[in-house]
Amino acid sequence: MLSAKSLFREIFDHDDAFRLFCSIAASGEAQGGWENGRIARLVPPAAQELAPKIARHGADEDKHGRIFTALLRKRGLKPVGVPPETDYTMLLERRGIGLAHHRLSGERPLTLDDIVTYLAHSRVTEQRAAEQMRLLCVHFGDHPEMGRAVRMISADEDNHLAYCHEELLRLAHAGHGRAIQRTLRACALAEIRVHRDVSLAVTAHMARILGWPRTKQAVLTAGIHTLYAYERAGGWRRMVSLRMPERRDALGEPARTAPEFA
After folding, report:
1. Phi, psi angle pair for 258, to nearest 5°
2. Each residue of 210-223: pLDDT tens digit?
3. Which distant-in-sequence residues (6+ apart) come within 8 Å of 151 by Cβ?
4. How far apart are CA 14 and CA 21, in angstroms?
5. Which end of the chain is more exposed for a tag (fewer CB within 10 A), N or C?
């Protein structure tokens, strides 16, 4: 019987599949670290109080990338190139979601509208990340090789999501509510399409590596399309709602150092 646990276990138990999984994850986290680091550097004067939190967000993402790389190293594996069709971060940018890399590569300060765009983009993508890491925690939180890593990353993703909720609500109360909701909706509708496309691409690569029969790949592909249909019909709304988190100032402390996994 197909289940999330059996699929992940199959991937984790096969070196080539595990290498691709960790390489994709490490690349995405490293990209997020760079983006947040640049945004922290370019924060406008009107939002300078956010700079340390954005920098903390970036430091966490960098740490996650190092954790996935360390998991590879522990097995004696090296990262592989990320197939472009599985590059979630870059595919979102190509759809105009978030702040463009050419904008972040310059030295011109961002605007408050840019900060709204950044936080809305993060609110949506951190929802996805938090959900995925909670799923891994449910099935592999006690795994001898992966458990400590997924628990730490999951806790960080929950903090990132709480931070996005709190800061977007603060900006909404300051008069940016309409822009926030408009941006959140555009981000969510783009994200669910990119997530579908990346999921299909990753499934195709894993099917080739693991030698899945066509029927198994077809069932997984159908599941991905079913999830997209649900999200397109209204599931995307969970990504745009805002509520004050139980944990306030979730990124108000320095980032924790990544543990040694090697």
Report:
1. -65, 135
2. 999 999 999 999 99
3. 137, 141
4. 10
5. N
